[in-house]
Amino acid sequence: MLKYSRQRESIKKYLDTHRTHPTAEIVYQNVKQEFPNISLGTVYRNLNLLAERGEILRISPGNGPDHYDADLTPHYHFLCTECGQVLDIDMEHQAQLDDIAMKQFDGIITNHVTQFFGLCPKCNNTKMN
Amino acid sequence: MLKYSRQRESIKKYLDTHRTHPTAEIVYQNVKQEFPNISLGTVYRNLNLLAERGEILRISPGNGPDHYDADLTPHYHFLCTECGQVLDIDMEHQAQLDDIAMKQFDGIITNHVTQFFGLCPKCNNTKMN
DNA sequence: ATCGAAAATAATAATCATTACTATTTTGAG
DNA sequence: CTCAAAATAGTAATGATTATTATTTTCGAT
After folding, report:
1. How far is the CA of B6 from the C1' of D28 (A)?
2. Could you tell me if B2 and B62 lie in one domain?
3. Using a CB-CB distance cutoff of 8 angstroms, which residues of chain B are in contact with residue A103?
4. How far apart are CA B72 and CA A72, in angstroms?
5. Which residue(s) pair with A58 in the sheet?
6. What mean pLDDT value characterizes chain B?
7. What is the pTM of this model?
8. Which of A126, A129, B22, B60 is least enclosed, having the fewest CB within 10 Å?
9. Could you tell me if A91 and A123 lie in one domain?
10. Residue at a domain's end among A72, A94, A116
11. Mean pLDDT over residues A47-76, rounded?
12. What is the CATH number of the domain that holds A60?
């Protein structure tokens, strides 16, 4: 049975009010200002719990730590190959991909994750100079 | 300047002849039969080197170790949420996704990675019993 | 063919992200 | 209120990968 915790509420609130796709470490640094004694393990445990319950999304880039997102509307992410920043991509959810993939596949496909790679606006401008 | 190494050749050959998307550890266990003294670090270094040179692909599932693939034709992968197995998905490369994503995006998108999730044929059959 | 610098290796230590453990504190149903 | 279940802080441990270092291998120049 799930019990309330002030720490978890603060973690969730941080994600709800910051759409920057923070890592566990970033969440930790920030929630620490309200709960100076909070431990990194508590942040991880609650991020996992919230992700399992479907209240937040976990974004796993190929390398480096996972990022978290409280925006539950189906959307895609962009990962900058230069600075590692995670940005939202404004495009329709491509549900048909699962159907196309299923055609020649003998198992069950329930969903897909697509990540886009390239240069974010900032890194792109820097490169141009 | 790149210099030849027997160990690297053996690693590449293993990937060329086994399309099972092995992890570094699996490659290590197998190449060890030809080079009993090879170290895991050598396997990692060469897998990274081959991936950087575009001779093999790295597949990063959200959790667990990376997998490697010598099949360079653009294709998608399926990850079984039950057993973790990585399988090839037989479908066209969806190059248009990058264009769609670019429309409302101010940076540069060079490519995308899509991973499909669900139950592999084997796990799906097991579940049905 | 052999010399020697650059590259690769084996062995091992270190790092990073994350999870596990444990004693203590907090929560909330009865 | 009571008290068991859940959550916590603090810390140790884990798994995957990278870094370090002394030694060996490769290969172009002599």
Report:
1. 19
2. yes
3. 91
4. 34
5. A68
6. 96
7. 0.94
8. A129
9. yes
10. A72
11. 96
12. 1.10.10.10
